[in-house]
């Protein structure tokens, strides 16, 4: 493999063979349910509940709890983060992928997953018995650490300059939002509002992943991102205005996440599923491509650090709800994740007690 991306956005009306998935891994777009999407939750009357003891509106907690149990996903609106800032962030990401100078591209492009800052492509195994071939996903991703206070801008590319500038501001806002969401999710489980945050631990691991999906002439033959669950605790995803592509599994069927103006898509990662002893779900999802418009997304991940010990919260375990998972150090979980990379990942299952 070369040192820079081999991905050439094609202008032809067919896709190169290295992007073509075996039949059973294709998206089968006509089978995606058009009838439902994920819940949209309005945070308009929620003040954040930071330092006081106000309990949020019970109907808000019910909605959050229902979404977390049934979907593992929801969208939020009226979250207080300025739309203008989010649009600037999405524009900077598009520019980053579209006009990164070749020498910078070379500097960041890697196949080494341990790199802190990396531009990379996803691949999945082809599954054909006699082949080691991998199929490339129709996307490119750029991943790096983030922090609400510490300046991480020196790690980021200098082009476009607004990526560094806007990202710092965006990261602060997202951290506040994540704190609110972690409180709501804890309270939704009937726990103290700080419980989940404490369990995820001090010095959480914070990573950002920008995804770029160019228009694709044959969306039925490929995927933007393969089926996966997020291994962290909580993900806050922003998508470029008006372009859909994210799909989640609900009752065994693929459901498309509708575009909602100025909304964030929130999803629970594997660690919340384990901490909640299986009550809240980390749900399989994927990104599909479309013929007309490029799509840009930014996933902000919040998870434990490698030393945090994760396991079902004791208050959620009783004789009717025996612990489903053993306690583990998050480093074990990450190592298992990387062992399973490029396959359909079953990471948390490796920490599950046998029935
Ligand atoms: O781009 C999307 O819609 C999904 C991104 C995602 O699932 C991820 O980065 O983990
Ligand atoms: Fe994801």
UniProtKB/TrEMBL annotation:
GO molecular function: metal ion binding; oxidoreductase activity
Membrane-spanning ranges: none
Family named by the database record: Belongs to the iron/ascorbate-dependent oxidoreductase family.
Protein's UniProt name: Fe2OG dioxygenase domain-containing protein
Keyword annotations: Iron, Metal-binding, Oxidoreductase
InterPro entries assigned to the protein according to its UniProt record, in alphabetical order: DIOX_N, IPNS-like_FE2OG_OXY, IPNS-like_sf, Oxoglu/Fe-dep_dioxygenase_dom, Plant_2OG-oxidoreductases
Fe2OG dioxygenase domain span: 204-304
Any Pfam family matching the protein: DIOX_N
Species this chain originates from: Acer saccharum
């Amino acid at each position: 493999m070369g040192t820079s991306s081999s991905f050439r956005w094609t202008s032809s009306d067919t896709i190169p063979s290295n992007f073509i998935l075996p039949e059973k891994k294709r998206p089968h777009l006509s089978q995606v349910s058009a009838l439902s999407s994920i819940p949209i939750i309005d945070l308009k009357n929620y003040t954040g509940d930071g330092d006081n003891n106000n309990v949020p509106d019970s109907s808000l907690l019910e909605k959050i709890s229902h979404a977390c149990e049934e979907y593992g996903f929801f969208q939020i609106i009226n979250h207080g983060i300025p739309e203008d800032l989010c649009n600037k962030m999405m524009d900077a990401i598009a520019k980053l992928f579209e006009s990164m100078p070749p020498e910078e591209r070379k500097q960041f492009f890697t196949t080494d997953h341990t790199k802190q800052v990396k531009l990379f492509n996803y691949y999945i195994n082809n599954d054909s018995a006699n082949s080691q071939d991998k199929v490339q996903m129709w996307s490119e991703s750029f991943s790096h650490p983030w922090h609400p206070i510490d300046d991480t801008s020196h790690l980021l590319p200098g082009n476009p300059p607004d990526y560094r500038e806007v990202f710092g501001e965006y990261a602060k806002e997202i951290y506040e939002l994540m704190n609110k969401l972690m409180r709501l999710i804890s309270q939704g489980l009937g726990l103290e509002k700080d419980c989940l945050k404490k369990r995820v631990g001090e010095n959480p691991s914070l990573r950002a992943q920008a995804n770029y999906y160019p228009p694709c002439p044959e969306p039925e033959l490929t995927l933007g991102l393969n089926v996966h669950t997020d291994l962290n605790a909580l993900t806050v995803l922003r998508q470029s205005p008006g372009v859909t592509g994210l799909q989640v599994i609900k009752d065994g069927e693929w459901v498309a996440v509708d575009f909602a103006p100025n909304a964030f898509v929130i999803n629970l990662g594997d660690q919340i599923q384990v901490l909640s002893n299986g009550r809240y779900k980390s749900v399989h999802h994927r990104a599909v491509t479309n013929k007309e418009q490029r799509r840009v997304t930014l996933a902000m991940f919040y998870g434990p650090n490698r030393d945090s010990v994760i396991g079902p919260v004791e208050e959620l375990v009783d004789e009717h709800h025996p612990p489903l998972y053993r306690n583990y150090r998050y480093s074990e979980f990450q190592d298992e994740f990387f062992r399973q990379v490029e396959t359909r990942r079953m990471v948390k299952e490796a920490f599950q007690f046998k029935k």
